[in-house]
Design goal:
The complex is a heterodimer of chains A (395) and B (293). Chain A has 395 residues and is α/β, with parallel strands linked by helices. Chain A is built from 17 helices and 6 strands. The chains are: A alpha/beta (395), B alpha/beta (293).
């Protein structure tokens, strides 16, 4: 739709530089990372003393403009479409959609503005506005109250039980943390002597190393990222895990939490809200669409695209809490897990269904996910969560 | 440009590396734009060989930095030679030199151990700097490397800033075990190294084992190419092909159909896990041999 406007009209231009600029713009619209520096180098390449053959142009631009394997594989298609005008239609449908569409440089995406505008125009044009908005917004009025009520129902029936759950969860999270930090302290004793510092500081003693300085290994604390499935099939467990997340957020120095159903929502900030009323208000806003369908693959994909770079480092553990019942495509789930894997240290998948006797991880999503996760564990009660502790402490 | 590329291709050929035109173009662009070249591809497709071959093509030194988890600036740039420093201090013990003078003396270039990055930028003629398996180093090192690769200068607190005497040709390789930062990717030219096709792999085999019988070479390569299509964990790389061919020549097998048993046994050169070994049974081996011979 909107992105189609950015495909150049392809008039025959005499000025090769102008055509190059249009080609770069098309690549950018298709998710290639092409900044001013690349444009400059491409122009330098094109502006050499001699005429370039088509092959030389293709190979040179490919080296310069591709940054990933995916870019590399698609480059021929892009190149043919633009310079040789082959397969134009397919490219037009590729543009702007898919995971690549969002990977653009800040401020360099001409497609973002028109698409927002276009969406707004479309919304005002369509009288109901139902087709335009995402699935969740349609039920705005009713669902907010309804879903929270539904989620509370089972747990609230026994307030004592509820308090016990909360207390135990918090203690568990605290214990995980103390394990981790003790390990850190042991490292701080420093096994190796820091020769540089020792010599530097002992010159005054004629070089005889009297004071020893040890090397302290800096240890990044383990970061926990929880992705909680709050779709309909997880109804009975959502609140329980939400409390677990609260405990994690309170007790770990570095933790982030997200919930997902058909889309992904970042909830760390809302949960950290000290004012209970405000917190509830924020959660109510967030909870639209809870207890509906699940698109695990797409939610994970959204996480990869929008949050992973900021939230994850090589000492991160991603904890996905879900029963694996997925209405989205399971191929997508596999793909996004592969991507996620590269960015974090471990992926732990907690599945409340494992606790049920006779459960086999055959749900389409679960089967696709299994090869890519490091630990697949039950999480139907507190004991099963406590069993995770040694695993996390070892990381 | 055509001539230069042909020249690069020819010289790659002379050094025993079979390059394709795309790689020649990447090398040419490296020279012109002075950008690093990032090579990605599966393990065993010969990424490191590109760096080594490039050094031979450009007839220059190869400086290699192997990355690993926990690689830090000390191991990559420079380190002081502590033993010599201590010795020097001991030697001057009797002499009337003030502590600050001693300090000044022992922090001179003589006491500096050059690690690959510093070594690479202090060469008169630009060397090839091969930064191998950058994905194994942590993000901090990657960020640091990015800085060195854009400024080509290194600052040593005790000595000051050292400017590059020449800009080295930098080749980075990655196996994709970790996502590299967008910034590093953007800094680099990119080349994806795929498994070679049949014709190219035969040429590689001939370049490395000049004496090999052409028919055997063809069979070996076609066999390996079909093994790569089987459902196995670790696809055999080019090094494995070469190993296997050498093994077959050593066993005096001139035709894969001659001795199925020996061929099957020699597959340990190609298949390196238990699962793969079982996935390619004697029957499957025979079937593939029948197809490729």
């Amino acid at each position: 739709m909107a992105s189609a406007q950015n495909i150049p009209a392809l008039p025959v231009l005499s000025d090769p530089l102008l055509r190059l600029v249009r080609f770069l713009r098309m690549l950018r619209d298709n998710g290639y990372v092409v900044g001013a520096a690349e444009a400059h180098d491409a122009a330098r390449f094109l502006d050499g003393d001699e005429m370039l053959s088509a092959d030389e142009l293709r190979q040179g631009l490919r080296s310069l403009l591709c940054t990933t394997t995916a870019d590399w594989r698609r480059f021929d298609e892009m190149f043919d479409a633009f310079w040789l005008r082959r397969g134009l239609k397919r490219v037009a449908t590729v543009s702007g959609s898919g995971p690549q569409g969002l990977r653009r440089l800040p401020g360099s995406g001409p497609a973002t503005k028109p698409s927002v505008l276009a969406a707004a125009v479309e919304r005002s044009a369509a009288d109901g506005g139902e087709q335009a908005g995402p699935a969740g917004t349609r039920q705005r009025g009713a669902s907010a109250a309804e879903s929270l009520e539904k989620a509370d129902l089972r747990q609230i029936s026994d307030p004592e039980e509820l308090a016990r759950v909360h207390e135990l969860t918090a203690r568990l999270a605290a214990r995980m943390r103390s394990r981790l930090s003790r390990r850190e302290r042991e490292r701080r004793k420093g096994r190796r002597i820091d020769l540089r510092k020792t010599i530097h500081r002992n010159i005054a003693h004629g070089g005889t190393p009297i004071e020893l300085f040890r090397r302290q290994r800096r240890d990044k604390p383990l970061r926990i990222v929880v992705l909680l499935d709050v779709s309909g099939s997880m109804n009975h467990y959502s609140l329980f895990f939400l409390r677990f997340i609260l405990g994690v957020l309170d007790n770990f120095r570095q933790a982030e939490a997200f919930v997902f159903h058909t889309r992904l929502v970042h909830i760390s900030e809302a949960l950290k809200e000290r004012n209970a009323e405000k917190a509830l208000e924020r959660m109510t806003l967030i909870s639209q669409g809870w207890s509906g369908g699940t698109k695990i693959g797409e939610s994970l994909d959204a996480f990869n695209r929008l949050h992973a770079q900021r939230v994850l480092n090589s000492r991160s553990v991603v904890m996905v809490v879900s029963d694996g019942y997925d209405t989205g495509s399971s191929d997508k789930l596999g793909e996004s897990l592969i991507k996620l894997r590269r960015r974090c240290k471990r992926i732990v998948w907690l599945n409340p269904m494992i606790g049920w006797s006779g459960y086999e991880p055959v749900a389409g999503g679960m089967a696709a996910a299994l090869p890519h996760i490091d630990l697949f564990a039950p999480a139907h009660n507190l004991e099963s969560l406590a069993a995770l502790e040694p695993y996390l402490a070892k990381l | 440009m055509k001539e230069e590329r042909k020249d690069i291709l020819r010289r790659f050929g002379e050094t025993g590396y079979v390059a394709d035109p795309q790689l020649a173009m990447a090398v040419l662009m490296m020279q012109r734009l002075q950008r690093p070249l990032l090579l990605e591809g599966d393990a065993g497709v010969g990424k490191t060989e590109v760096g080594k071959g490039l050094a031979r093509v450009l007839d220059t030194r190869l400086i290699r930095l192997q990355c690993y988890e926990g690689l830090d600036a000390n191991a990559a740039i420079y380190e002081w030679n502590y033993q010599r420093q201590l010795l020097a201090i001991k030697i001057w013990e009797q002499e009337e030199i003030s502590a600050s003078e001693k300090e000044q003396h022992i922090f001179q270039e003589d006491f500096l151990l050059r690690r690959p990055l510093l070594e690479a930028i202090s060469q008169e003629t630009p060397p090839v700097l091969l930064i191998d398996e950058i994905d194994r180093a942590d993000e901090e090192f990657e960020a640091f490397l990015l800085e060195v690769l854009s400024d080509f200068q290194i600052s040593i607190p005790e000595l000051g800033t050292i400017e590059a005497k020449s800009v080295p040709y930098v080749v980075l390789t990655s196996n994709g075990t970790r996502e590299l930062s967008d910034a590093l990717r953007r800094r680099c030219l990119y080349h994806y190294v795929d498994y070679p096709d049949e014709g190219k792999e035969i040429r590689i085999l001939q370049a490395r084992m000049p004496g090999i019988d052409l028919r055997l070479a063809g069979q070996v390569v076609r066999f390996v190419q079909s093994i790569r299509k089987e459902d196995i964990d670790k696809k055999p790389g080019i090094a494995e092909t070469l190993d296997w061919a050498a093994a077959l020549v050593g066993l005096e097998i001139a035709d894969l159909r001659e001795d199925p048993e020996a061929v099957y046994d020699s597959l340990l050169c190609l298949l390196k896990t238990d699962h793969d070994r079982r996935a390619v049974s004697p029957e499957i081996t025979e079937r593939i041999v029948g197809k490729v011979a």
